[in-house]
What does this fold into?
Amino acid sequence: MPLVSRSPASPEDLAQTFDLGGFLAMRWAVLAAWGATVLIAAGGFEVPLPLGFMIGLVLAGVASNLAARRALRGPTGGHGRIASSVLALDTVLLTGLLALSGGASNPFTAAFLYPVVMGAFLLPSGPAWGVTGLATAGYASLFLVGGAPTAHSHHGSGMSGHLVGMGIAFSLVAPFLTFAIGRIRTALAEAARRLRIAEVARARDARLASLATLATGAAHELATPLGTIAVATAELEQRVQGRTDPVAADVSLIRSQVDRCRFILEQLSADAGVGLWDGARPSTPGDLLGLALERVEGAADVELLGPEALYEQPFQVPERAVARALRGLLRNARQAAGPEGPVRVSIERDGDRLSLTVEDQGAGMAPDIAARVGEPFFTTREPGEGMGLGVFYARTVAEQLGGGLDVTTSPGRGTSVRMTLPVLPGERR
It folds into this structure.
């Protein structure tokens, strides 16, 4: 199955990762409060209550908390189900306690808000609404039972109307709390997701800045020895001029590689201290690919797909930086595809977004390797064949421009890298 880069966890996923141990510890306090209230009401206020049954309900809650604590040692993925079950049980136990102590006339009916609020904070939306519905049904059932008499057992029609009004108010407030808290939780989860994305981007920018500083220093230090090598190579070329033996071919190769190194260093020096958008100019996707393919082996075999008009559509873009990023992706694809394998580039336009996808039909990547794609200095190539900065640089450039980079790969089926860029209108000079 293809591996696709994923965004951080959704709010529903985040709801499953809360601290179940802390919730169960708080539940001990809730159960203790229930027991203390029953004993105080029976002893202090001389309210006749079925004390044995009520203590039994509290002990059932204690037993369930002990069982939940044992289940806490199990897989983390089951914590959400445990919390849902515990809150549902608390709702049933609370309904029983209130039914045995006055029913709807018991002033502690407001305790039904406890499972509603906790469910809205801790559970995914489905189970949270389930707990809310159960609490509302439990409250409504109290009107069907007489319950034991309370200290104030005189109930006139005014009091009955008041109790009915309380029941209606609860049936309105409970769903509102579930909805409002759910929205707040979703907003907080989204804020946390955006914060994580910003932290990742900031860390990537910091690494890129460090690499830029290192590259600038390297360019300065390497300029002199490369100049010396260029002079020596020029003298050797004069000595082997007109010869066709392997030595002459080696001298010519050295000369071309020195020129390539000097070109790269000149680019590094020119880009040092310059913001990405500072180099923006009107260009077209066709121009970008033309620049990118200049230094890619087998460039003539790269197949361009998509509407031809899109390749000629001008827009504002830092031409040199984006072409360099595409060049790295194309080199990776060319190497993965092999000498005879196809490499395709496709183009798409979606509103103010332009996507360029580089695709090969090579061996693809295993999940553990694909998970690390984009890390600086991570490469599967042989030593000396690459530094592992191509995808990292392309992703950083795309994200700094307001776009993105998505990698889809599957073992045996190749790899597809999609670079998305914002389209700012521009005219060709």
User: Anything to note?
Assistant: The CA atoms of residues 43 and 49 lie 10 Å apart.
